[in-house]
Amino acid sequence: MRKVVPVAFFDRPTPLVARALIGKFLVRKRAGKEEAYMIVETEAYHGFEDKASHASRGKTLRNTPMFGSPGTIYVYYTYGMHWMFNVVCGKKEFPGAVLIRGVESIRGPARLTKTLGIDKELNTKKIGKVSGVWIEDRGITISPRAIQKTHRIGINYAQEWAEKPWRFIYKNKEPLR
């Protein structure tokens, strides 16, 4: 079963979407060829108060896509060398996004974007077949105990917000159902 996840899937609080994306498939179409990878690691950034979020200081030119409607793609450049791929969640004008940190054979958000050819050209587009990047539900069920919840990483500056358990990792310990 291959079912494209509808935009409505992203119209929920970001931590819920981040958890629900584990076991879904990130699909990229380039040059007429589709590549699909199961999502195994995500991280949620939720709201104005979240000091780890790009939106914690308000709307800027860089973070404007975070204020878009659910399913908007937010791609930003970091450390002067890496693109990061996010999908906007929640209501329009409420800044929330899920960073896709890893898929089944590609760990690390920078490796992911490099391997899949994701860059600024996708920024502000809607996730879906038209943009060439979408999420599919392929009927895989992952039990809650197979998903590890941890604090987010690389954001020590965010003080208590760094400790939010908004990073979700498929532990690969159980068979898929």
Structural class: mainly beta
Low-confidence stretches: none
* Terminal-residue CA separation: 13 Å
Enumerate how many helices there are, as a single number: 2
What's the overall average pLDDT, rounded?
89
Which sequence of SSEs, written as H and E, runs from N to C?
A: EHEEEEEEHEEE
Largest sheet: 10 strands, antiparallel
Plain-language structure description:
There is one protein chain. The chain has a single domain, classed as Roll (3-methyladenine DNA Glycosylase, Chain A), CATH 3.10.300. It contains 2 helices and 10 strands; from the N terminus they run E-H-E-E-E-E-E-E-H-E-E-E. It has helices at residues 14-20, 109-116, and strands at 3-4, 25-30, 33-46, 73-78, 82-88, 96-103, 106-107, 133-137, 147-150, 167-170. Strands 1, 2, 3, 4, 5, 6, 7, 8, 9 and 10 form a 10-stranded antiparallel beta sheet that branches. The chain is globular and about 40 Å long. The chain starts with a strand and ends in a 7-residue tail after the last strand. The model has no long low-confidence stretch (mean pLDDT 89).
Describe, in short, the structure shown.
This protein has 177 residues and is mainly β. The protein is built from two helices and ten strands. It has a single domain, classed as Methylpurine-DNA glycosylase (MPG) (3-methyladenine DNA Glycosylase, Chain A), CATH 3.10.300.
Break the fold down into its secondary structure elements and pairings.
Elements: E1 3-4, H1 14-20, E2 25-30, E3 33-46, E4 73-78, E5 82-88, E6 96-103, E7 106-107, H2 109-116, E8 133-137, E9 147-150, E10 167-170
Antiparallel strand pairs: 1-8, 2-3, 2-8, 3-6, 3-10, 4-5, 5-6, 6-7, 9-10
